[in-house]
């Protein structure tokens, strides 16, 4: 479903962020990219939706080289969630989520109904839809970010440290929610974290990166060598 073939990313200043990465992410799984800061996790993730272009090698989504696809079209099938939920501050929570279906031509009423369903799906009370993002906690904002990423029903979800900014108790709740959601939705999720415990909890497959952008291990959590 997502395949990295010998992918290298060298930034203009010469930094090799990702060094000959080859791996396949299976459809319908949560695959976690884990490793210390600066080991190339975010760079790898962003090459999937072409926020970053590979220097050499190929990234394929559904067998198609992403370099040959229009970014806007590619991204329609790829939801993206980051650490700071990145919500529009002047729009209500409901309208933040409804924006995506509105942009794809749904009527306002239909888009808002869909947005309400999504808020429920991510475990937010429907009344929260009327609030503005600043009136939500960090964890609640992340739930809205996930709801918005799911609004276009993309088969792929890229998540970059989505739960790192919230406190440990809330984080555990969000992790449990994600597992529950995934059991229901069966997305192909690539999840970036620096936290090995989070990787083991969430990942069906875990890719361990090391500094210099090399893949050190790629295995099911139970098979990882915890050195
Ligand atoms: P991670 O997500 O694992 O923290 P990144 O993919 O963000 O790692 O970064 C990998 C390496 O590439 C790091 O050494 C980082 O400093 C470097 N890097 C990231 N973005 C740029 C950039 N735009 N220009 C130069 N170097 C960069
Ligand atoms: P309504 O449902 O009442 O039509 P909209 O969400 O469409 O509300 O927005 C109403 C007005 O506010 C529009 O003119 C829109 O362009 C503007 N607007 C909405 N969100 C923002 C924003 N984040 N920044 C600036 N203007 C905004």
UniProtKB/TrEMBL annotation:
Q: Spell out the family assignment given in the record's similarity comment.
A: Belongs to the ABC transporter superfamily.
Any GO molecular function: ABC-type quaternary ammonium compound transporting activity
Identify the keywords attached in UniProt to this record, alphabetized.
ATP-binding, Nucleotide-binding, Transport
Show the taxonomic lineage: Bacteria, Bacillati, Actinomycetota, Actinomycetes, Pseudonocardiales
In its UniProt entry, the species of origin is given as Labedaea rhizosphaerae
What Enzyme Commission number(s) does the record list for this chain? 7.6.2.9
Q: What is this protein called?
A: ABC-type quaternary amine transporter
Question: Quick check: keyword ATP-binding in the entry?
Answer: yes
Keyword match Nucleotide-binding: yes
Q: What fragment of the full-length protein is this?
A: 1 to 227 of 371
- Domain (ABC transporter): residue spans on this chain: 2-227
């Amino acid at each position: 479903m997502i395949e990295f073939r010998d992918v290298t990313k060298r930034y203009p200043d010469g930094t090799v962020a990702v060094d000959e990465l080859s791996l396949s992410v299976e459809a319908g799984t949560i695959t976690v990219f884990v490793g210390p800061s600066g080991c190339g996790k975010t760079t790898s993730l962003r090459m999937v939706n072409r926020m970053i272009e590979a220097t050499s090698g190929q990234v394929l989504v559904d067998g198609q080289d992403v370099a040959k696809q229009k970014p806007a079209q590619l991204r329609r099938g790829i939801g993206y969630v980051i650490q700071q939920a990145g919500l529009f501050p002047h729009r209500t929570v409901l309208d933040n989520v409804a924006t995506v279906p509105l942009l794809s031509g749904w009527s306002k009423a239909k888009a808002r109904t869909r947005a309400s369903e999504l808020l429920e799906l991510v475990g937010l009370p429907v009344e929260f839809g009327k609030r503005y993002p600043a009136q939500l906690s960090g964890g609640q904002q992340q739930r809205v970010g996930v709801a918005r990423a799911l609004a276009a029903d993309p088969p792929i979800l890229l998540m970059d440290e989505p739960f790192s900014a919230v406190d440990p108790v809330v984080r555990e709740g969000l992790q449990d929610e994600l597992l529950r959601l995934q059991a229901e939705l069966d997305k192909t999720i690539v999840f970036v974290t620096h936290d090995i415990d989070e990787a083991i909890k969430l990942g069906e497959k875990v890719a361990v990166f090391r500094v210099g952008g090399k893949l050190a291990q790629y295995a099911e959590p139970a098979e990882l060598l915890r050195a």
